[in-house]
Amino acid sequence: MTRGNAGNARNSARNSMEKTRIRDRMREIFTLFAFVVLSALVSLIVMDILVLPITLFAVAKKDLFNFIVRDLFRAFIIAILLLLIVRRIFTLQKDGLTRREIIRHILYRPVSALATAFMALLAGAVLIGIIHLLFSYNNYFIYKLIN
């Protein structure tokens, strides 16, 4: 490719990106609008296809649906957690840790995570309390400032 052709290709690419005519802008906006409407329509149809049978099943067989959603979901979550713990134990054993170190590690991690979460909640509560105090005394401060 010669130097002149490269410059023309660069200019045509720049010009196609810098469309300033209203007609071009309207075409781009219409394309986005059509995409949003079509995706909403597809989502609506797919959700109706998926949700309607589940809703009919839930209404017709309430006890079975509650068992599936509540009990089997809990069992599934517990099984995943146990699988992760067992996998972690095998990994720690391969790393050469003793049983006592493995138990200490497995107990320490959740306690550490809970302590971190508790500290974050406590810091949030203190921050919300300070903001509440500032807003509740705002009228008093404005009154003192004016008078």
Please give the alpha-carbon distance between the first and last residues.
79 Å
Shape: extended
Largest sheet data: none
Level of helix content? Answer: over 70%
Beta-strand segment tally: 0
What number is the mean pLDDT? 83
H and E string: HHHHH
Task: Give the key terms.
single chain; about 150 residues; mainly alpha; 3 domains
Task: Please give a quick description of this structure.
The chain has 147 residues and is mainly α. The protein contains 5 helices and no strands. It starts with a helix and ends with a helix.
Structural overview:
With 147 residues, the protein is mainly α. It has three domains: 60 residues; 36 residues; 49 residues. The chain has five helices and no strands. Helix 2 crosses helix 3. The longest helix is centred in the first third of the chain and has 39 residues. The radius of gyration is 31 Å and the shape is extended.
What secondary-structure arrangement, pairings included, does this model have?
Elements lengths: L2 H15 L4 H39 L1 H33 L4 H38 L1 H9 L1
Helix pairs in contact: 2-3
